[in-house]
Every structure is written in structure tokens, then in C-alpha cells.
Amino acid sequence: MLTFIGLGLYDERSITIEGAEALQAADAAYAELYTSRLVGASIEDVEAYHGVDIEVRDRAGVEQHPDDILDAAETDDVAFLTAGDTMISTTHVDLRLRAHDRGIETQVVHGTTAQTATSSLTGLQNYRFGKATTLPFEYAHGGDDVPESVRETIDTNRDLGLHTVVYLDIKVGRGPEGEDPEHEEYMTADYAAGLLADYYPDALGVVVARAGSPDPLVVADRLAALAEQEFGDPLHLLVVPGDLHVLEADALRDLAGAPADALDA
Prior knowledge:
Blueprint: E1 2-6, H1 17-25, E2 28-32, H2 43-50, E3 55-57, H3 59-63, H4 67-75, E4 78-82, H5 90-101, E5 106-109, H6 114-122, E6 133-135, H7 138-141, H8 148-159, E7 164-168, E8 170-175, E9 178-186, H9 189-197, E10 204-209, E11 217-222, H10 223-226, E12 236-240, H11 246-256
Parallel strand pairs: 1-4, 1-5, 2-3, 2-4, 6-7
Antiparallel strand pairs: 7-12, 8-9, 10-11, 10-12
């Protein structure tokens, strides 16, 4: 059995009760921290809290060389851990399909996602979000601006009146010079807002920082204004809203401090 378990958004306690029970019952546990991570806890904190040993795998150890994980799951109960909800990344879908190809039973124990938390914290209605996108560091895509694919996603959503979640790049184990085990870098919302403001200078943006933590931060303003602010520790993401329902506009004003003149941007 291979059980995919979402750890939630913040620390060792963010996992569901069902997830904690499955983790503690597993014969072996693996985790990856390159697609996202818990910013409020280390993997050692998770091990200590739940009384388990966890082997952290790098990208190659999950995507290219997962055979030992699958070998173990053929005879034992194996847990595979990720931050957030475990099936958001195609990496994890691929691993599950490999397990199915080998006749290994799988199950999924969900965790809270950044997108659902974003809807909850901002007051933007979940059914009014369009396709999400990820804004990479410039060195990661070989350019010096916002990739056209990111702009196309935002433009299409705005044309349809829909909100866009812009996930911000995380680089763990790889930096501007290539492979670097010590490299750990998180794009901040002010940096992202600065990149996007070159294309949408008057557009409204909404920053969500540290969703799932005891002190999440939500700030709404024009992208150019957000680029001049600081939002503290990671993880951050950015929302570019589409058309706002009156209740959504009220929420951004009251919960995120959006200026009245920016709500019509």
C-alpha cells in the first residue's frame, strides 16, 4: 500500500487526524520538500511530533528513481508526504500511476491547499477563480521578464472576469548557477508584484502570506503599490482578481485594506 498524505500548510500539527493516523501506522515514510514545504516546522519537527522516521527525497529521487519506494510499497504500508494537499503536483500523480502499473494499492489522504486557504482568507469566492499559474524566477526560465504563458493565463482569466492565483517560485537545491544542495530561495510577493506591475501597473493585487499559520497576512492594493511593501516570512502567493462581486469587494476592503479607488481597477 502506498498512501499519499498531505501535511497541510504550516507545521507538524497541520495534518488531518486521518493523515496523522495513517502516517503513524506506516512501516516506512518518505517526503519531498521541493514543490513546497512547511514553513513552520522542519522535517525533524514532524518526525518528533508523530514519532516516525521520514526519508526526504530530492526531485530525482521521486521523479527518476522511485523504485525503492515502490518496492517497499509492494509488501509494506508506505507513506509519501508532501506539504499542502498531496495531489496538487503532477509529480505525485505520476508516482501514483507508477504504483498502479505495478499493481500496488494506493490511497490519498488530503490536506488543506493554498488555493482554498486563499479563498477563505481573502473573501474571494472559490468558484470565481480561473486557471492558476506559477511565476518563476527569471534565471529559472532564461528570461528577464514575466513569461508569456503567465501573462496569457492572467489575461484570459481577466477577460472572463475570473481571479488568478499566482503561485510564487520556490527553488530548493538549485540556484542561478545550477545544482546547489545548500540553495533555498522563495520568491516574495513584493518581488512578484514588481514583475507583474510592468504589465499591469494599475491592476489590483492581493497578497496572501503564511496561509495556515497563526499569523497569516492579507493585503490588497495596486500591484505597483504592493511592490513597495514587505510581507515578512514565506510562503507568499499573489492573486490578480477579475471582476469583483460586491461582497468580494467588501471583503477585500475590510479584510485586506484595499483602497476604494483600487477596487475598480
